[in-house]
Amino acid sequence: MRILTLLILCSFSIQACSQRLSEADLRSRKVADSLLESQLQKEIEGKSHVIFSVADKEMIVVVKNTDSFKEFYLNKDTGIIKDTTLMASDPVIIKMFDKSIYREGFTTFNSGFFESGYEISSGSITYFVFKDEQGKRYGEARLSVFIKPNPVDTEVYAYFVEKLIFYSKTT
After folding, report:
1. By the 8 A CB rule, do 59 and 79 touch?
2. Domains of the chain: total
3. Is 32 a domain residue?
4. So which domain of life are we looking at (predicted)?
Protein backbone atom coordinates (compact mmCIF):
# COMPACT_ATOMS: atom_id res chain seq x y z
CA MET A 1 0.00 0.00 0.00
CA ARG A 2 2.87 2.38 0.82
CA ILE A 3 4.41 1.80 -2.60
CA LEU A 4 1.11 2.56 -4.32
CA THR A 5 0.69 5.76 -2.30
CA LEU A 6 4.27 6.77 -3.10
CA LEU A 7 3.73 6.18 -6.83
CA ILE A 8 0.55 8.25 -6.82
CA LEU A 9 2.29 11.13 -4.99
CA CYS A 10 5.22 10.99 -7.42
CA SER A 11 2.90 11.12 -10.43
CA PHE A 12 1.20 14.24 -9.01
CA SER A 13 4.55 15.95 -8.42
CA ILE A 14 5.73 15.13 -11.94
CA GLN A 15 2.53 16.56 -13.43
CA ALA A 16 2.85 19.70 -11.28
CA CYS A 17 6.41 20.26 -12.52
CA SER A 18 5.69 19.72 -16.19
CA GLN A 19 4.81 22.86 -18.10
CA ARG A 20 1.70 22.91 -20.20
CA LEU A 21 1.96 25.07 -23.29
CA SER A 22 -0.90 27.44 -23.98
CA GLU A 23 -2.69 27.61 -27.31
CA ALA A 24 -0.88 30.92 -27.98
CA ASP A 25 2.52 29.31 -27.37
CA LEU A 26 1.68 26.45 -29.69
CA ARG A 27 0.25 28.87 -32.27
CA SER A 28 3.58 30.76 -32.43
CA ARG A 29 5.40 27.49 -33.04
CA LYS A 30 2.88 26.38 -35.68
CA VAL A 31 2.93 29.73 -37.51
CA ALA A 32 6.74 29.67 -37.67
CA ASP A 33 6.87 26.04 -38.80
CA SER A 34 4.14 26.59 -41.39
CA LEU A 35 5.80 29.68 -42.84
CA LEU A 36 9.13 27.90 -43.10
CA GLU A 37 7.54 24.87 -44.70
CA SER A 38 5.81 26.98 -47.33
CA GLN A 39 8.62 29.47 -48.01
CA LEU A 40 11.96 27.89 -47.09
CA GLN A 41 11.52 24.12 -47.12
CA LYS A 42 14.38 23.53 -49.58
CA GLU A 43 16.66 26.01 -47.80
CA ILE A 44 16.26 24.48 -44.31
CA GLU A 45 15.83 20.78 -45.03
CA GLY A 46 18.51 18.86 -43.12
CA LYS A 47 20.19 22.08 -41.95
CA SER A 48 20.48 23.80 -38.60
CA HIS A 49 18.58 27.06 -38.43
CA VAL A 50 17.56 29.72 -35.94
CA ILE A 51 14.14 31.37 -36.02
CA PHE A 52 13.13 34.69 -34.47
CA SER A 53 9.64 36.04 -35.05
CA VAL A 54 7.66 38.97 -33.75
CA ALA A 55 3.89 39.00 -33.31
CA ASP A 56 3.69 35.76 -35.34
CA LYS A 57 4.02 37.96 -38.42
CA GLU A 58 7.61 39.04 -39.16
CA MET A 59 10.41 36.49 -39.04
CA ILE A 60 14.16 36.27 -39.41
CA VAL A 61 15.66 32.86 -40.14
CA VAL A 62 19.40 32.15 -40.22
CA VAL A 63 20.36 28.89 -41.94
CA LYS A 64 23.73 27.19 -41.55
CA ASN A 65 25.10 25.96 -44.86
CA THR A 66 28.32 24.01 -45.34
CA ASP A 67 30.58 27.05 -45.78
CA SER A 68 28.31 30.03 -45.10
CA PHE A 69 25.15 31.23 -43.42
CA LYS A 70 22.07 32.57 -45.13
CA GLU A 71 19.63 34.99 -43.52
CA PHE A 72 16.01 35.39 -44.60
CA TYR A 73 13.56 38.09 -43.62
CA LEU A 74 9.95 36.97 -44.12
CA ASN A 75 6.49 38.32 -43.58
CA LYS A 76 3.56 36.00 -42.94
CA ASP A 77 1.44 37.84 -45.53
CA THR A 78 4.00 38.54 -48.27
CA GLY A 79 6.59 35.75 -47.92
CA ILE A 80 10.33 36.23 -48.37
CA ILE A 81 11.21 39.89 -48.45
CA LYS A 82 14.99 39.70 -48.31
CA ASP A 83 17.74 37.08 -48.24
CA THR A 84 21.36 37.75 -47.43
CA THR A 85 24.52 35.64 -47.27
CA LEU A 86 26.35 36.22 -43.99
CA MET A 87 30.04 36.02 -43.20
CA ALA A 88 30.96 32.59 -41.85
CA SER A 89 33.44 34.25 -39.47
CA ASP A 90 30.94 36.46 -37.61
CA PRO A 91 31.30 35.44 -33.92
CA VAL A 92 27.62 36.08 -33.08
CA ILE A 93 26.45 33.96 -36.00
CA ILE A 94 28.81 31.15 -35.02
CA LYS A 95 27.64 31.43 -31.39
CA MET A 96 23.94 31.18 -32.30
CA PHE A 97 24.58 27.68 -33.71
CA ASP A 98 26.20 26.40 -30.49
CA LYS A 99 23.62 24.07 -28.87
CA SER A 100 25.27 24.39 -25.46
CA ILE A 101 24.13 28.02 -24.99
CA TYR A 102 20.45 27.11 -25.08
CA ARG A 103 18.07 26.01 -22.34
CA GLU A 104 16.08 22.79 -22.49
CA GLY A 105 12.34 22.95 -23.06
CA PHE A 106 10.00 25.77 -24.01
CA THR A 107 10.41 28.95 -21.95
CA THR A 108 7.35 31.14 -21.42
CA PHE A 109 6.31 33.57 -18.72
CA ASN A 110 4.79 30.56 -16.91
CA SER A 111 7.96 28.44 -16.95
CA GLY A 112 10.36 27.85 -14.07
CA PHE A 113 12.84 30.36 -15.50
CA PHE A 114 10.54 33.18 -14.32
CA GLU A 115 9.35 31.64 -11.05
CA SER A 116 10.88 34.56 -9.12
CA GLY A 117 9.51 37.11 -11.60
CA TYR A 118 11.11 39.44 -14.11
CA GLU A 119 12.32 43.05 -14.12
CA ILE A 120 11.13 44.19 -17.54
CA SER A 121 8.64 42.88 -20.05
CA SER A 122 7.56 45.12 -22.89
CA GLY A 123 6.72 45.03 -26.56
CA SER A 124 5.22 42.51 -28.95
CA ILE A 125 5.43 38.79 -28.38
CA THR A 126 8.46 37.03 -29.84
CA TYR A 127 9.13 33.41 -30.68
CA PHE A 128 12.68 32.03 -30.74
CA VAL A 129 14.11 28.58 -31.43
CA PHE A 130 17.29 26.90 -32.64
CA LYS A 131 16.61 23.71 -34.63
CA ASP A 132 19.41 21.30 -35.41
CA GLU A 133 19.80 19.17 -38.55
CA GLN A 134 17.35 16.58 -37.21
CA GLY A 135 14.76 19.21 -36.26
CA LYS A 136 15.35 18.99 -32.49
CA ARG A 137 14.47 22.28 -30.79
CA TYR A 138 16.77 24.15 -28.39
CA GLY A 139 16.22 27.37 -26.47
CA GLU A 140 12.61 27.60 -27.58
CA ALA A 141 10.94 30.65 -26.05
CA ARG A 142 7.84 32.78 -26.43
CA LEU A 143 8.28 36.08 -24.59
CA SER A 144 8.16 39.82 -25.23
CA VAL A 145 10.66 41.79 -27.32
CA PHE A 146 12.16 43.48 -24.28
CA ILE A 147 12.53 41.01 -21.44
CA LYS A 148 14.86 40.94 -18.45
CA PRO A 149 16.15 38.47 -17.52
CA ASN A 150 16.24 36.85 -20.93
CA PRO A 151 16.68 33.07 -21.21
CA VAL A 152 18.17 33.48 -24.71
CA ASP A 153 21.83 34.50 -24.99
CA THR A 154 22.06 38.31 -24.84
CA GLU A 155 24.26 38.72 -27.93
CA VAL A 156 22.18 36.36 -30.05
CA TYR A 157 18.90 37.94 -28.97
CA ALA A 158 20.21 41.50 -29.52
CA TYR A 159 21.35 40.48 -33.01
CA PHE A 160 17.81 39.47 -33.96
CA VAL A 161 16.13 42.52 -32.42
CA GLU A 162 18.58 44.87 -34.18
CA LYS A 163 18.12 43.05 -37.50
CA LEU A 164 14.35 43.19 -37.20
CA ILE A 165 14.49 46.95 -36.59
CA PHE A 166 16.84 47.34 -39.57
CA TYR A 167 14.61 45.30 -41.89
CA SER A 168 11.49 47.11 -40.72
CA LYS A 169 13.06 50.46 -41.60
CA THR A 170 14.56 49.46 -44.95
CA THR A 171 11.78 47.43 -46.55
Report:
1. no
2. 1
3. yes
4. Bacteria
